[in-house]
Amino acid sequence: MDASEVVLVVGLGNPGPQYAGNRHNVGFLVLDELADRVGGKFKAHKGGAEVVEGRLGGNRVVLAKPRSFMNLSGGPVVAAAKFYKVQPGSVIVVHDELDLPFQTVRLKLGGGENGHNGLRSISKSLGTKEYLRVRFGIGRPPGRMDPADFVLRDFSTVERKELAFALDHTADAVEALVSHGLEAAQNTFH
């Protein structure tokens, strides 16, 4: 990415303390780690997100956590992208991924939403699927548990023991993506 352009890094989650530790909120958790790295605190922004402006690897970034529920994330993402004049190709969305084992990180540009309502809302609002994704594996639900119930549950005790490391690793992947681009970051993290 061009060092002069702003990169919008969006973490997906649901607002409110009752959702804070949920698997579905891993995007928020990664952005909290990134906010620590840039030395900023999230502040309300008129577009419906909480934002932190800073630098990662010498690049200007805006970290954004939509204040809407997950399935309405598109509106706040588009509002932030317009306000900061960010094109879809410079939007990075950090989200949970059922089809990856716990704490696996995968980076990609575009693709389908795989049933993820937050991504579906963002794709519809941006008018394209061509934005960057940082996928954090949360694994599949056990037995016959409904995936919708699984993503809204907190991480297990065993998972929580690894979570801080996994969030740090994912934040490293975001930083590499911002600093070195998709292919170099994929070569490092895949």
Automatic annotation (TrEMBL):
Catalytic activity: an N-acyl-L-alpha-aminoacyl-tRNA + H2O = an N-acyl-L-amino acid + a tRNA + H(+)
Principal location listed in the UniProt entry: cytoplasm
UniProt keyword terms in alphabetical order: Cytoplasm, Hydrolase, RNA-binding, tRNA-binding
UniProt EC number: 3.1.1.29
Sites marked Discriminates between blocked and unblocked aminoacyl-tRNA: 14
Site (Stabilizes the basic form of H active site to accept a proton): 96
Location in or out of the cell: Cytoplasm
Binding, tRNA: 19, 69, 71, 117
GO CC terms in record: cytoplasm
GO biological process: protein quality control for misfolded or incompletely synthesized proteins; rescue of stalled ribosome
Pfam families listed in its UniProt record: Pept_tRNA_hydro
Catalytic residues (positions): 24 (proton acceptor)
EC category name: hydrolase
GO MF annotation: an example: peptidyl-tRNA hydrolase activity
Protein name: Peptidyl-tRNA hydrolase
Upper taxonomic lineage: Bacteria, Bacillati, Actinomycetota, Actinomycetes, Pseudonocardiales
Annotated gene: pth
